[in-house]
């Protein structure tokens, strides 16, 4: 039997993951709900002063999105490892890095894209000025794939362990410091009417680097953690 | 003539040989570290003059600066060992990388604590979101992540390989974090004591600093070797050489 072409395998894997996610639609809503709850708690804790809220809105939205993605990352490879599909993917003739990249893409579409859709709403509730809103969405569009890619490497490393939730947060924190700095920095610059293109360009550069390196690192980490 | 160096290194990769080598080196390194540390403390606390601005409070740099150097040096050593362990699958390299992490975390912690103690009277606050402080804190988190990942696996070698990979990911990330944090907040950058170069420091203050640096390096070697010996005995407990060791039989050289 001849193996299918790489592009066909990637498309099949992407379709499978998206179908699986669609069958369990309720799970997609959970990170969004979590983000809404966290963002709602900030005005209660800090007081409803619009000036204060509009100053912290950008940062709060980014940290909230980051936490919601962190929450969903834990599930990235778990189901596949438990039912044995991950071993099959590793044995597949197609390069594992590309297959893993498809899984990360599916995760980004199901977990991060709904968050990006709801983020302007959250920012509006926190009184972010409208002129900063496009910058917020642009920064999120660049920052969330970066977080998904880097998180996937770390999730792959913890694939062979029992408890991984807190450990994942501990390992992801140092990695996501630059992402948060640049993303929130772009929004803050836009709010003050300063040029915001430099931090966005940094995020884009980081994303280009991560798109190439992270799937390879993720495949290597999976091979280490699954011990094959 | 130069043939014995690779041969010796090759033999050092064997756990029993490394165990004996580390056991022979460790007391000397520890003793020398204690002597040099005492000399450096005497030079720093009694011989070196007080600073004309900071008075005696600056003397904490004789602990703070060598610890900060060690926190980065140990990460470098750990990354090299992790790379060797991952590429050539040498067990000793994995052990060295994993047992370096707690020592590095301890030095990073000491750096943060002494910095806070110095910052309270000098800056009026024990913590500020300065670039250097923040990157040092992030470094501590990386160390803790490596230690946590290593211990979360049931199989030690698998844990060591996964944590070694994390060390390499962190090594790529540390410069990025450093520069992004600098970009984020460059306040106080010029006023931190760690910027003191050899050209800006009085010779009577410099020699205790360099002596303490040598002492911390030797202490790292002693501590690393002690930890690696304990780790080797634990992970090789089923092997013959450990059984001979525990039974008190010296036996012939098995290597």
From TrEMBL, chain A:
Keywords: Cell inner membrane, Cell membrane, Cytochrome c-type biogenesis, Membrane, Transmembrane, Transmembrane helix, Transport. Pfam families: CcmB. It is a multi-pass membrane protein. It comes from the Bacteria. InterPro entries: Cyt_c_biogenesis_CcmB (IPR003544), Cyt_c_CcmB_bac (IPR026031). It is found in: Cell inner membrane. Its main location: membrane. The chain crosses the membrane at residues 28-46, 52-73, 96-123, 135-159, 166-190, 196-222. Belongs to the CcmB/CycW/HelB family. NCBIfam families: ccmB (TIGR01190). Required for the export of heme to the periplasm for the biogenesis of c-type cytochromes. This is Heme exporter protein B.
TrEMBL record, chain B:
It comes from the Bacteria. The chain crosses the membrane at residues 28-48, 68-88, 100-119, 131-150, 162-184, 204-222. The keyword ATP-binding does not apply. It is a multi-pass membrane protein. Its main location: membrane. Belongs to the CcmC/CycZ/HelC family. This is Heme exporter protein C. It comes from Luteibacter jiangsuensis.
